[in-house]
Amino acid sequence: MRKVFLSVAVLLLVLPSSLFATAQQGDELMLDGKTYTISTEPLEGYLQKNPGKLPESNVTSTALWRGYVATWAIRDNRLMLRDVKLLQSVANPSPKGRSTELRSVMPSMFPGQEQVFADWFSGYLVVPTGKMMHYTHMGYASIYSNYVLLKIENGIVTKKEQLDSKAFVKFREKQFELFKESDEYKKALNEAETGETKMSAKENEEFLRQYYSGKYTSMIFE
User: Fold this and answer.
1) pTM over 0.70
2) Rounded to the nearest 5 degrees, what angle is found at the Cα of 14, between the Cα atoms of 23 and 69?
């Protein structure tokens, strides 16, 4: 699954964005008695350090390139992983033609553990809490009216902010400017500029701004 995702990421940089650029289904977070869909992927760092831990999926979805949906909760200011559901095919499709479903792989990934303290994660959890104001057909780039921004350090919530859309856009722009100084961004920009699909410098930057939005908004730069 990780190789598939990386291959798709390369394709995104050389083919028209409309082909593969799809808004993504987010993880779920239980916070203050409510469940939200978040714009951050806290499990990715764990999977990078533990290759092969996530079972292989037998299907792919343009709306779920990572192949799974994780469920999280904030308990006593600690980020806890509650479940991991993998996208898999259905042996007998439903009458409505549904051929895939999300099935829990938590027991195989973390035997005997109902929840796991996410001490591997340091970054921001971006939690949209209001209505969608602007839809972007790529990653987590859509804009909502309100957000909760949680700063997490080694799995511990150290700061919690309430942001409206203007404040969040300002935060996102600042994060993007910092991300542009990274080697990862410079490499991606070079691949975009030398790819078969020729775009202007402004178009390349806007593409990367949207495609990597879920990544750089979650990063702690200071």
Assistant:
1) yes
2) 30
